[in-house]
Amino acid sequence: MPLKTQQDEQPSLNLTPMIDVVFLLIIFFMVATSFAELESDLELELPEVAAAEARTSAPRQRVVAVYAEGKITLDGETVTLPELTQQLTTARREYPALSVVIRGDSSCAFQHVAASLAACQEAQISQLGITVRVASGATRTTR
Asked: What CATH number should be reported for the domain holding residue 126?
């Protein structure tokens, strides 16, 4: 068996591609800033309006809380199921992309949470979320 008598070259790191990329990024940012300066130098008189407000502001996420005894609150105010449906329907008409999060007490009957989900479905809310707390020391199961 022949023995290897020559030593291979030590591996070296080629920095040329990295330098090329950095150089191109520098050129890109230099050109981008020069366009921003050109736009601000335009001498235009823009038209004025009396009031500038958004037609409808994006609402905050609505929170439905379901307590152990079956009490339901919408953003902290106690409501019945028909009131919940009516208020969510009204809110969805104003802002179609309304999102709702349902927080159910861990000791309440699931029927109460299911009724709240049905109220959201009746109000045609498409962005729903349910909050849960991950138990400490819980193991992940894949299904």
From this structure: 3.30.420.270
Instruction: With CA atoms as reference, report the closest residue to 64 among 34, 41, 43, 88.
Output: 88
Which 3 state secondary structure label does DSSP give 31?
Answer: helix
| Residue linked to tokens 């130098």 | 41
Q: Which domain holds residue 121?
A: 62-130
Residue 138 pLDDT:
56
pLDDT number for residue 95: 84
Q: Which residues of the chain have pLDDT under 70?
A: 1-2, 4, 34-46, 52-59, 134-143
Number of domains present in the structure of the chain = 1
Could you tell me if 64 and 76 are in contact, meaning their C-beta atoms sit under 8 angstroms apart?
Answer: no
Task: Please state, in angstroms and rounded to a whole number, the distance separating the CA atoms of residues 23 and 17.
Answer: 10
Shortest CA distance to 125 belongs to which of 105, 97, 102? Answer: 97
Whether 94 is in a domain gets the answer yes
* Contact in structure between 37 and 77 (CB atoms under 8 Å): no
Asked if 63 and 101 count as a contact pair (C-beta separation under 8 A), the reply is yes
Report the half-sphere exposure of 47 (CA within 13 A, side-chain side): 4
